[in-house]
Amino acid sequence: DAEVERSADDARTLGISQTLDWSGKRAARTDAAERERLLAAARYALSVWTLGNELLTGLSRHQTAAARQELALRGEHAMAEFAELAERRFRAGDLDQAELSLARLSLTDARIQRATRSGEAAAAQQELRALAVDSPTTEWPALDGPPSLANPLSVADRTTLLQGLPEIIAAERQVDLAEANITLRRKEQRPDPTLSLRGGEQANESVVGLGVSIPLFVRNRFDGEVRAALSGRDEARFSADAARRRAQARLQSASER
Questions:
Q1: pLDDT tens, per residue, the chain with 257 residues
Q2: Global pTM?
């Protein structure tokens, strides 16, 4: 800063001041920013994982619907042969009208089943095409059969699997960010002193000044910010616990199915 005074004693001074970070606010802000970066990276990984999950689910539904459609078509052909055989036996007198009507009804039911499965296959293909926009159907990979359940996951394997889920990692990163915000808010409660050094001339004499100023948090101790950060940490922990319980339930249900 600079100051010029025109009076009986002309004065010209030049000064510099520096606030000292005694409480470590800069390190706390750096740590909070790094944890926020890790949270953003975890959310990005979660988005990729979610898309991959949707693609795999769509492929599974499409493949299953196509297999059921093929099975329904084979069933329709079998029922058509059965109905034709029933017609011949009816004309030969080996079947009565009720048995012939039952054969015709079975053929009609098989045709309805085939039409239903064809509609389900078309719907599954449409859902998958919405996810894989630039991929032609000829490039869609075929999934293998279901995994063997001869060796179910142990408790340690389940824990490792759950801890590696992107949604669990993102929830834990949110907790870490909340903890860093608490540290930052507590450090912001501590005032930092400012040192200043001034020099110049006054009345043709050299002057040098040294100043120290410390803000006093009298009317605002920033307690509300700390309480809000604590509440945010509790909310993040509850959300992380809920996400972990949901993942455990999904894993258990998937293993049973």
A1: 998 988 888 889 999 999 999 999 999 999 999 999 999 999 999 999 999 999 999 999 999 999 999 999 999 999 999 999 999 999 998 888 999 999 999 999 999 999 999 999 999 999 999 988 888 888 888 888 666 655 667 777 888 889 999 999 999 999 999 999 999 999 999 999 999 999 999 888 899 999 999 998 888 888 999 999 999 999 999 999 999 999 999 988 887 87
A2: 0.73
Find the helix or strand (DSSP H, E) in which 209 lies.
strand 205-213
d(CA 248, CA 164): 12
- The whole-angstrom separation of Cα 107 and Cα 74 is 12
> Contact 240/171 with Cβ under 8 angstroms?
yes
Query: Are 3 and 12 a contacting pair, CB within 8 Å?
Result: yes
